[in-house]
Amino acid sequence: MVYVGIPKGQTNQEEEVLKTIQDGDSDELTIKRFTESREKPGALWHIYAAKDTEKIREFLKKVAEEQGQENPVDHDPIHDQSWYLDRSLRKRLHQEYGVQGWAIVQFLGDVVFIPAGAPHQARPRGAVHNLYSCIKVAEDFVSPEHVKHCFWLTQEFRYLSHTHTNHEDKLQVKNVIYHAVKDAVGILRANESSLSRP
């Protein structure tokens, strides 16, 4: 979080932000960072374990059906980013499916790392709930430990509609694998003579 802009003269905005942080299920230490340390909060994240993805997807489809919404085959309630799990939906998700996430308030200067495939709170216009005007720098990367999971996500994106924003392979996983193997083979060939000695 590289910038958080707090408007001057709006006395009730601080109370609204505090209420949002509290309603977002933030812990006491996070609340104290805002109330006592006077740090600048920029965004509220809700992050879930990747292993709970299918349960969350099933829950969102169930809620959509209850509300009379369609669940087209070429759309995905997580990748569509059309749901915001408010406090009551988060509570219901925990009660019905045993899924509980982590509430993280990102303050000015904080970094938030989201593991591969971990669903995080989605809204129609972005991945997080912004508390104040803020600027975040985001970077996608593929670690060797998560190539398999990233490849699986890429395959999942292929089944979305062609007009879906996540239809393309943003991580370029196949290219990452190709170049990693190419570099490894190049290093092995360059050191072939020293590797073959007894």
From TrEMBL:
Encoding gene, per UniProt annotation = Kdm3a
Q: Which reaction does it catalyse?
A: N(6),N(6)-dimethyl-L-lysyl(9)-[histone H3] + 2 2-oxoglutarate + 2 O2 = L-lysyl(9)-[histone H3] + 2 formaldehyde + 2 succinate + 2 CO2
UniProt xrefs under Pfam families: JmjC
Binding note for cofactor = Binds 1 Fe(2+) ion per subunit.
Question: What SMART domains has UniProt attached to this entry?
Answer: JmjC
The protein, known as = Lysine-specific demethylase
PROSITE patterns in the cross-refs: JMJC
Per the record, the similarity remark reads:
Belongs to the JHDM2 histone demethylase family.
Q: Which GO terms describe its cellular component?
A: chromatin; cytoplasm; histone deacetylase complex
- Domain JmjC: start-end pairs: 1-158
Entry remark concerning the domains of this protein: Leu-Xaa-Xaa-Leu-Leu (LXXLL) motifs are known to mediate the association with nuclear receptors. The JmjC domain and the C6-type zinc-finger are required for the demethylation activity.
GO biological process: any one?
A: demethylation
* E.C. no: 1.14.11.65
Give an example GO molecular function: methyltransferase activity
Looking up PANTHER family in the UniProt record yields:
JMJC DOMAIN-CONTAINING HISTONE DEMETHYLATION PROTEIN, LYSINE-SPECIFIC DEMETHYLASE 3A
